[in-house]
Fold this sequence. Notes:
By secondary structure, the chain is an all-alpha fold.
Amino acid sequence: MSEGDELIKRYGKRPAFEWFMRVEDKRYWGMTQDLIHETTKKMTALIVLSAAVTLAIANASYFLVWSEKED
Length: 71
């Protein structure tokens, strides 16, 4: 069953413009959810990368200070 048939069943004899707007609202909502998901994935990757770099620098500086104290 196509979306048009489903809309006819659900909304009856309302104007075609209303059907169009409902389909467009559904499409835009899907695009918005995809954009939010994509942005969330990118931000998570940047946070993980930032944490990894911070830990690497902290470990490097700790071992540099520790090796200087042993000399």
